[in-house]
Amino acid sequence: MDIGSRIKMARVSAQMSMRDLAEKVGVSHTAISKYERNIDRPRPAILLKLARALNVDTAYFLRDTPFDLQCTAYRKQKKLSQVSNFCFNT
């Protein structure tokens, strides 16, 4: 998940409009819109203000989302069955 999606998710969760968030952070509502659509990226100082206004940790905007990747391995010969499922957490 990208920073813009996280900003929007936190804003909606806090039940704030773009204008409300913009006033708390000290930027325009257009800037908030650009951040959420990943057209522009907030500077570190603005990111700190966003985190405070939305009551989230700054790491919330930057951390990777873990996901599971599963794949099935088969033996080389067609007549042999499936070996196992592999699961990787990243």
Could you please describe the fold and organization of this structure?
- The chain is an alpha+beta fold.
- Helix content is 47%, strand content 17%.
- The protein has 5 helices and 2 strands.
- It has helices at residues 3-13, 18-25, 29-36, 44-54, 59-62; strands spanning 68-74, 82-89.
- A two-stranded antiparallel sheet has the order 1-2.
- Strand 1 and strand 2 form a beta hairpin.
- Helix 2 (18-25) packs across helix 3 (29-36).
- The protein starts with a helix and ends with a strand.
- The model is unreliable at 83-90 (pLDDT under 50).
Features:
single chain; 90 residues; alpha+beta; 5 helices; disordered C terminus
- Largest beta sheet: strand ordering: 1-2
Regions with pLDDT < 50 over 5+ consecutive residues? 83-90
Rg (CA only): 20 Å
Largest sheet: 2 strands, antiparallel
What portion of residues belong to β-strands?
15-25%
- Shape summary: globular
SSE string: HHHHHEE
Task: Reconstruct the topology from this structure.
Elements: H1 3-13, H2 18-25, H3 29-36, H4 44-54, H5 59-62, E1 68-74, E2 82-89
Antiparallel strand pairs: 1-2
Summary of the model, kept short:
By secondary structure, this protein is an alpha+beta fold. The chain contains five helices and two strands. Strands 1-2 form a two-stranded antiparallel ribbon.
